[in-house]
Structures are given as structure tokens and as C-alpha cells.
Design brief:
Blueprint: E1 2-4, E2 13-20, E3 26-32, E4 36-39, H1 43-52, H2 58-68, E5 77-80, E6 85-89, E7 99-101, E8 106-112, E9 115-120, E10 125-128, H3 132-161, H4 166-174
Parallel strand pairs: 1-4
Antiparallel strand pairs: 2-3, 2-7, 3-4, 5-6, 6-7, 8-9, 9-10
């Protein structure tokens, strides 16, 4: 287990949750595919710091997600637009019990005593106190949001690369 002062969200993240240390401070436990990291920041601060490192804010990312989802609550969030990492919460972002999941590492989900058993890409399992149907709905929404934001980013990038309109291109061909 590694201890860090801050953490930048990477594609290897599988899930993140809050944990109180022995002094009563809310910290983050981040599970990646090959290691577990404890940060000295709350999950909310960890996500915000990760976004600020690339020029964005968690508040802005959450507002964007709500705008795309029709002002719904508990929306997935693009927490690393550079590496295209989306996380989705099990509860409200302000709830201390919230677990943030990366849909890219969820291989399979099962119902287990009215809870959800999650199998991850590295072969590990986790039981979450949320019904399977609710969890799968959040998972599907996160996957769709990632596809949507990646699609928007590539179309915007293409428009930036080729800003000329057709008339300008035709004039250049005639010359």
C-alpha cells in the first residue's frame, strides 16, 4: 500500500472510496489494477485536484455531466479528459460512503443478497450495498457518457484542424 499527499486519476484506477484516518480526517483509498493508494485528501478533493492539474474543475465537470443528462443527479464525471477516464458514484458526491467506479475495469456484475458483486478486470471482486439493477443502470450511463464525450472531443478537434469552409477550399483549388 502506498501513501501519497495527492493523486492524479489514471486509467488504471478501478475504484475510490473515502476512509477516516485515526485522527478523524477523511482520506481516499484508491484501488488501481496493481496497487492500492491512500491519499491525504477526501475523494471529492482528490477528483477536483486531478481535474485542476489539467485545467478543469470538478464543479465544471459535474455541471457539464448534468447538462448532458438533463440535470439528473449522481451523473458520471469525466475526471481525466486527457486520458479519457470517466468515474461514476454509487451515491451523491457529497456522501461519505460514496464509491467512485471506473466502468472500463468492470468486467461483470452479479446479484448477491440484494447487493451487487462486481468482478474487475484484474480478477478481484467487491460487494457494494446497492441493487444490481441500479448499479448496472449507473454503469451503462457512465459508458454512454464516455462515448458521448469522446465523440464530442474528436468532432471538435476535427473542426479545429479544418476550420475552412467549402467556399474557401474551392477558391484555393481554382487558383
Amino acid at each position: 500500500m502506498f501513501i501519497d499527499n495527492h493523486y492524479i486519476v489514471k486509467p488504471q484506477i478501478m475504484h475510490m472510496t473515502g476512509h477516516y484516518d485515526r485522527n478523524g480526517k477523511l482520506c481516499s483509498i484508491i484501488t488501481e489494477t496493481d496497487k492500492t493508494i491512500i491519499t491525504d485528501q477526501s475523494p471529492f478533493d482528490t477528483l477536483d485536484g486531478s481535474l485542476r492539474a489539467v485545467g478543469f474543475t470538478l464543479r465544471g465537470a459535474m455541471e457539464s455531466s448534468r447538462w448532458h443528462h438533463g440535470n439528473a443527479s449522481m451523473c458520471p464525471v469525466m475526471v481525466n479528459p486527457v486520458e479519457q477516464v470517466v468515474l461514476f458514484p454509487t451515491h451523491s458526491a457529497n456522501n461519505e460512503d460514496t464509491i467512485w467506479f471506473n466502468p472500463d475495469h468492470i468486467k461483470r456484475t452479479f446479484s448477491f443478497n440484494r447487493k451487487t458483486l462486481i468482478q474487475f478486470s484484474n480478477g478481484t471482486y467487491l460487494i457494494v450495498n446497492i441493487r444490481l439493477s441500479a448499479f448496472n443502470n449507473k454503469l451503462t450511463t457512465a459508458e454512454q457518457y464516455k462515448e458521448l464525450t469522446i465523440g464530442l472531443a474528436t468532432s471538435t478537434f476535427t473542426l479545429t484542424l479544418y476550420p475552412e469552409n467549402r467556399k474557401q477550399r474551392k477558391r484555393k483549388k481554382k487558383q
